[in-house]
Amino acid sequence: MTNDVWNGGGRRLHLQEVGTRDGLQVEAQFVPTEDKIALVNALADAGLAKIEVTSFVSPKAIPQLRDAEIVLREIHRRPGVVYSALVPNARGAERAVESKADELNLVMSATASHNLTNLRMTQAQSFAALKDTAAVAREAGVPINVSLSCCFGCPMEGDVAEDVVLDWCARYVQEMGSDGISLCDTTGMAYPTQVERLTRAFRRRFPHTQLTLHFHNTRGMGLANVLAGIAAGADRFDASVGGIGGCPYAPGATGNVCTEEIAHALALMGYDTGVDLERLLAAGRRLPGLIGHDIPSQLVKAGRRLDLHPRPADFEAIKARAEARG
After folding, report:
1. Total domains in the fold of the chain
2. Known catalytic residue: 151?
């Protein structure tokens, strides 16, 4: 990792919120539609560059997001914010387009085992479905992003060769015309030197394709991996408010890197994320009441670095006794 990463120098980085999709979809408790809409609006007001609002999967598969159309149609659109939606197939793409999604996010896995487990399809079947989905988006003039899961390791197959990841990316760019690609650490297996190598390799091979890095904090390396990505030239990062989320196919997996923790750290290092941290923290504080349990965010619990605490009520008495002792 180069020393330059420690001094942001005002460099612009883009934080992209995925908690409203990646986080809420795994929650046992259904978050009411009006609360989802209010949360998306609050995150937009906090200055997030992109928000993955929801997912247009079958309501039977993910009932937590069964209100996708209503949420996407009724949010207040803040100028400059990209409102994205995950779509699994052409029908999902049609629903998302009708609901005015700014971008469609398509998903498949870098490994055969995870793809079968997660999507119930072979990789060849997934790619064919993605091409059909991309065609719907292209006809509607809506940009697409492809999220490639398990780029940094698979919980069933182990390490994934760099060439495998890049070859899939090439197919997305060349055969589907993907506008952007997310390299996803779906189960929190990435480590910093690996992140830096793969990010540099992607940048060399696809200099004109928008790159997003998507990390989970399963093994406590989320922030370190973000910094490694920055050192290698990445400037877009997915994150989840409150650190909520997880993966059902990764034992012990936690949510994505926490949006407010990443924003706080990067601001201290001199990076410009465009995020109003106080507004973001206020959004994070809503979550326990919405999902019915505590959240991983340490920043919500502890506050910002210079959120100081009052002195004890007997501070002057303590001081006087100390001074009396000489």
Report:
1. 1
2. no
